[in-house]
Amino acid sequence: MEPTEKKMKVAIMGAKGYPYVYGGYDTMIKELGERLVKKGVEVRVYNHRALFAERPRFVNGIECIYMPAIESKSFTQLSHTFFSMVHACFSDVDVILVVNSGNGPFGLISTIFRKPTAINVDGLEWLRPKWKGLGGKYFFWASKLATKFYDQLINDSEEMRRVYLELFNADSKVIAYGANPRESVEEEPIAKWNLKSKEYFLIVGRLIPDNNADLIVEGFLKSNSKRTLVIVGDVPYQDEWANRLKNISDERLLFTGYVRDPNELAALYSHCYAYFHGHEFGGTNPAMLKALGYGCAILALDTPFNQEMLQNGKHGWYFMKGLDSVKCIVESSEADENAMLALRDSARSGLTQKYNWDHVTDQYLEVFKGLAKRS
């Protein structure tokens, strides 16, 4: 009787956990982890203990480890990954996947313990306005260390690969973020906000400066549009910038706050006249992928990342970082309804094979197998 092949064990850390789906990394861990389990991989996810009232050991075949953190605005995520990395290095996992370039320094621990590691470094964290000053310097330093201490660097776009080559002389494997397109979504859920299909523009994202919601709101209000601008998202803390934005009083603005019901969010995407994407710093953006997957006409800030995702204008229009540019694109889009219809009709075709979650999983699995062989 032949011995059964030993299952590969992969630990994943650096996000909030599983199945806690709040941001891009949490979604990636869910989509990737569940698919890896189906492919015979033993997956362990390190969860931020404070976020989980109930703490089952296994969920959908994924082992959940609930680690503590030093609870503060600056140190929660970093301390959680530190404790998780130490725990994983003393365990029998074969490979460790870390997300977020801020966790770059902790690769030193896995190097000492000779645990094979990969890190998904995401976007240009050091340029984000919320990390100005010391925070920005830390993220630049941490991202540089990530290129030194981890066995495999992963970026989610060709543009981010170019940036890491240019800044740190470090190459990376490009594995995009996945999407889950939906062809048909009912209009009914948007009635909750007294909205009608194609009668509103949409923004989805955290209310932070680098997503440029203020630019879009103020530019939109300068336009002659009679439609509503719906802003979905918030920040989970008191913030002067976000509060100033939410306090702008105009009957054409609708701030929904967080929309946690996936059917309501899908309906908001699917039935908007056009989706505004103001995200400035980062690679493959999950909100943009949702917009493509739900068949939105996309109006995006002109950045190299957004050009890459929209195939240089094939699947969207671009605006510059200025109020008049936003005003102009609002009025131009309303003057050419056929162009918006054409963008909606072709949006899902923008989700090429590289944005398919099964393909994404196969690429990660290839990386993990290569790393496991080294050990």
UniProtKB/TrEMBL annotation:
An MF annotation (GO) of this entry: glycosyltransferase activity
One Pfam short name: DUF1972
Key words of the record: Transferase
Domain DUF1972: 119-179
Domain Glycosyl transferase family: 190-322
Superkingdom of origin: Bacteria
The keyword rRNA processing is assigned to this record: no
Spans traversing the lipid bilayer: none
Name of the protein: Glycosyltransferase involved in cell wall bisynthesis
Organism: Algoriphagus aquimarinus
